[in-house]
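Open question from group meeting: does this chain pack into something compact, or does most of it stay loose? Before anyone orders reagents, we agreed to write out a predicted structure and look at it together. Recording both the input and the output here so the notebook holds the full record.
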Amino acid sequence: MVALKPGVNIAGLRPEIVVALIAAESVFGDRGVVVTSAKDGKHRDHSRHYLGQAIDIRTRHLTDKQKKEFAELLQVRLGDDFDVVLESSHMHLEFDP
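Structure tokens returned:
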């Protein structure tokens, strides 16, 4: 299941990020996927978030081992046009061809 943190703006997400979200749902399985940021929030200048090419996914409910395993598996499934970055508080998915 995919859920949105209240206030997350998904309007205008690129189709590629929607595909990445579907892939994340299959990787996370019954642990669920919570999108914590999309086109909203504060990000660095020129962030792909503002272009609808990036989302952040909650990871606080995962062990460190699961975080690493899920990030690696998701990167393999998505391929070279995507970046999967494990941050301290979330997993960042970015379409970056």
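Observations to bring back to the group:
Strands lie at 2-4, 33-37, 54-58, 82-86, 90-95.
The chain has a mean pLDDT of 91.
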